[in-house]
Design goal:
Pfam families: Guanylate_kin. It is a single chain. By secondary structure, the protein is α/β, with parallel strands linked by helices. The protein is built from seven helices and nine strands; from the N terminus they run βαβββαββαβαβααβα. Strands 2-7-1-8-9 form a five-stranded parallel sheet, sandwiched between helices. β5 and β6 form a beta hairpin. It is globular. It starts with a strand and ends with a helix.
C-alpha cells in the first residue's frame, strides 16, 4: 500500500500553499482532487482543482459507495474523496497528498491508519485568519463570519491529528512541512 499525506486546517490557514510547495519538491507525491457541489471560484478548473459535480451526481455517488469519505462542509456544499481518484494516483506509482477540511482529514486518517500522516496547519490566531480570508476577496460578510465560526470549531481538533505546523512564517512552515513529509515517506 502506498502512503497518504493529509493536510487540514481552517480555510485560510495556508494548507493549500503548503501542499503546492510539497508537490513542487517531492516528485513521488500526487494531489488528490476532491469532488464538490460548490461552484468554481475565479480560475478553478474542473478535474484539476476539484471535480465539480451537481448535487444529484454527488448523491448518486454516495448511494453507490464511491467515496472514501464525504461531508456537507457548508450548508448545501458537499465535498468528498472519490475512491477512483486514489486508485488513479496509486496506479501512477505515487503517494497521495490531500488538502481537506478537518472532518475529512479524520475520516481519511481512520481509513488509511498507519499508512497516513495527518498534518494540522495552525494560524497564530483568528484575527490572522480573518485577514487572510479578507485578502482573498471571495467572501461576503456573512460567509466570512461562517468561516470564522467554523475555524474556531475546527481548531479544537488539532490534537487528534499526528502533527501541527504553525504557519506564522510561511517559509518556516514550508520547510517544516517538507521535513515532516520526507521523514514520513522515508
Amino acid at each position: 500500500m502506498r502512503k497518504a499525506i493529509i493536510f487540514t486546517a481552517p480555510s485560510g490557514s495556508g494548507k493549500t500553499t503548503l501542499v503546492k510547495h510539497l508537490l513542487d519538491h517531492i516528485p513521488s507525491l500526487a494531489f488528490s482532487i476532491s469532488a464538490t457541489t460548490r461552484k468554481p471560484r475565479n480560475q478553478e478548473v474542473n478535474g484539476k482543482d476539484y471535480y465539480f459535480l451537481s448535487f444529484s451526481d454527488f448523491q448518486s455517488k454516495i448511494e453507490r459507495d464511491e467515496f472514501i469519505e464525504w461531508e456537507e462542509v457548508y450548508n448545501g456544499s458537499f465535498y468528498g474523496t472519490l475512491k477512483e481518484e486514489i486508485d488513479r494516483i496509486w496506479a501512477l506509482g505515487k503517494d497521495v497528498i490531500f488538502d481537506v477540511e478537518v472532518h475529512g482529514a479524520l475520516n481519511l486518517k481512520k481509513y488509511f491508519e498507519d499508512d497516513a500522516l495527518a498534518v494540522f496547519v495552525k494560524v497564530p490566531d483568528l484575527s490572522t485568519l480573518q485577514e487572510r480570508l479578507q485578502k482573498r476577496d471571495t467572501e461576503t460578510v456573512d460567509t466570512l463570519e461562517k468561516r470564522l465560526q467554523k475555524a474556531k470549531y475546527e481548531m479544537t481538533f488539532e490534537k487528534r491529528l499526528d502533527v501541527t505546523v504553525l504557519n506564522d512564517d510561511l517559509q518556516k512552515a514550508k520547510d517544516m512541512s517538507l521535513q515532516i513529509v520526507k521523514d514520513f515517506l522515508a
